[in-house]
Amino acid sequence: MNIKSTFTLLFFICVLQIAFGQDKLEIDKSDNSRLIKVLNNSELIAENKENYLSVRVYTIDNGTGSAGFESCEVSYNLLVAVSEFDEAPNQSVFEIGPFISPKFIKWTDVKEYEREFTIEYGVFDNRKTIKLKTNLNELIMEK
């Protein structure tokens, strides 16, 4: 009798799962042009997931000719996504630019709730570097 009641209970659980489970998927097309551009044209160039904080650095192009040269070269903005590690994390995204040919160099300082990194940018014969420091609330240019 014990085995019979166990099978009966298992049967009802399976029937309930089928009856009340997900039965319909929806597909929506986004009309958010900025979101469409970012997701289709961004490239991850750096990532750091240490000590309570995740930082990802992306480049996104500003369109043909945005660098201001006759060669139709593009400039880029950097998107810096910052997130805590949590079930419901605090998150921020910062945008800085324009940069010509930005290149991530290195993480220069990693603290508990802060990250610092170096970016190189500019035309090939006149490259410059900039240090950026970020946390959940701000992105700061260091001199």
Topology:
Layout: H1 2-20, H2 33-41, E1 42-50, E2 53-61, E3 76-84, E4 91-99, E5 103-111, E6 114-121, E7 128-134, E8 139-142
What does this protein look like?
By secondary structure, the chain is α+β, with helices and mostly antiparallel strands. The protein is 20% helix and 45% strand. It is built from 2 helices and 8 strands. It is elongated, with a radius of gyration of 24 Å. The relative contact order is 0.13. The mean pLDDT is 86.
Structural class: alpha+beta
Helix content: 10-25%
Strand neighbour order, sheet with most strands: 1-2-3-4
Largest beta-sheet characterization:
4 strands, antiparallel
DSSP helical segment count:
2
Write out key terms for the chains shown.
4-stranded antiparallel sheet, elongated
Give a short synopsis of this structure.
The protein is α+β, with helices and mostly antiparallel strands and 143 residues long. It has helices at residues 2-20, 33-41, and strands at residues 42-50, 53-61, 76-84, 91-99, 103-111, 114-121, 128-134, 139-142. Strands 1-2-3-4 form a four-stranded antiparallel β-sheet. Strands 5-6-7-8 form a four-stranded antiparallel β-sheet, with no helix packed on it.
